[in-house]
Design a protein that fits this description.
Number of strands: 13
Radius of gyration: 31 Å
Number of helices: 6
Helix content: 25-40%
Distance between the termini: 49 Å
Structural class: alpha+beta
Length: 352
């Protein structure tokens, strides 16, 4: 929404037209430890006199550790973009002239995420003001695409290991992809601790991003994409039981009780390919959430010790999730014992 902000109700000689609180996306600047970003506006001079607008920008105090740097006079440099630009000034405006300009703001890197005020003034003219918010530019945003691709590759690697014809963690039968599995019950969300924990992680991530908890830790980062990716991974995990159920058929398979008597019961019969594909969806979701945490930590305003501690925790979590999934699925794909002893699956469920 555009609003005209008059310099003075009485004089109205300078005014600024632009968003009520514009977002300034900051990218790298040639100056060390500084970022710059554009602020597009329309400056109007309603007086008959030619004026040269003077630009000044000030950042709000937040009570944080960087207030001394960000709120001091001259911390932010404002100038009109262009080949003949001069720091602190815009090009002259003729009488009754309005011009679209792009104000280039240069700010210290640690001030990302703050709000501020741009003041446009001229000699013998009341100032006009507008508000802005500093956000990280695209090159400083968390690398969500890289996180997604990393999660997809890691999940695929674990699923390939599930079908390797070796004897570690059980050896899958030769026809594992189409042979019926010797498991009692279908995959259900309520019985899967991995599905439930990861779905809970999606809910917690949503709560943290919408309540502003992550704002201080990730200043200037747009958490909308994080919220979207978090919900995507959570939905993918909840979709895994549907994939597994779609691979099952209902029938009357033969079963042997403890006495060796053959019985039949109407039940779902799963196939190996459905279990592996469902496991891939679950692992994709889990690794996606963990990889998203990593890219957020990379962009976070935290010390290196804290970051490395979180990296180690994420790596350990990913290792044990992958190991558990690998052992479980390979055991489920293995042929039942053939030593003459009647086998029973008990209450085992085909859930991760």
């Amino acid at each position: 929404m555009l609003t005209a902000l008059p310099a003075s109700a009485a004089d109205g000689e300078l005014s600024i037209t632009g968003p009520e609180s514009a977002k300034v996306e900051l990218d790298d600047h040639g100056k060390r430890d500084h970022l710059h970003g554009p602020l597009p506006l329309v400056i109007s001079n309603t007086s008959p006199t030619r004026v040269t607008p003077v630009l000044a920008a000030y950042l709000d105090a937040t009570g944080g550790e960087h207030d001394e740097v960000c709120t001091r006079t001259g911390a932010v440099t404002a100038s009109e973009s262009g080949p003949a630009s001069e720091a602190g000034r815009a090009r002259a405006l003729g009488g009754n002239e309005a011009r679209a300009v792009v104000i280039d703001l240069v700010v210290p890197e640690q001030c990302v995420g703050r709000e501020g005020t741009l003041v446009v003034s001229a000699p013998n003219t009341p100032p006009a003001t507008t508000r802005f918010t500093l956000t990280r530019g695209a090159e400083h945003e968390p690398k969500y695409t890289a996180a997604l691709l990393t999660a997809a590759v890691l999940a695929l690697l674990v699923c390939l290991l599930m079908a390797v014809p070796a004897t570690f963690f059980g050896k899958p039968r030769d026809d594992w992809e189409r042979a019926p599995l010797d498991i009692d019950s279908p995959w259900s969300v309520k019985d899967s601790w991995l599905t439930n924990i990861t779905a809970l992680g999606a809910v917690v991530g949503t709560i943290l991003s919408t309540t502003g908890f992550l704002t201080d830790w990730l200043p200037g980062v747009d958490l909308g994409r994080f919220l979207g990716m978090n919900l995507l991974y959570g939905g993918l995990i909840l979709f895994a039981p549907i994939i597994y159920s779609a691979s099952c058929y209902w029938g009357w398979p033969e079963e042997k009780d403890e006495k060796g008597k053959v019985t039949r019961s109407f039940k779902p019969v799963a196939h190996g390919w459905g279990l592996v594909v469902a496991a891939y969806a679950t692992l994709f979701g889990v690794f996606g959430q963990l990889a998203t945490i990593v890219v957020l930590v990379v962009s976070a305003a935290a010390d290196q010790w804290t970051k490395w501690a979180l990296y180690v925790l994420v790596a350990v979590a990913a290792f044990f999730v992958g190991l558990y999934s690998l052992r479980f699925v390979r055991g489920a794909l293995a042929a039942p014992p053939t030593d003459g002893i009647t086998s029973s699956t008990g209450q085992r469920s085909a859930v991760l």
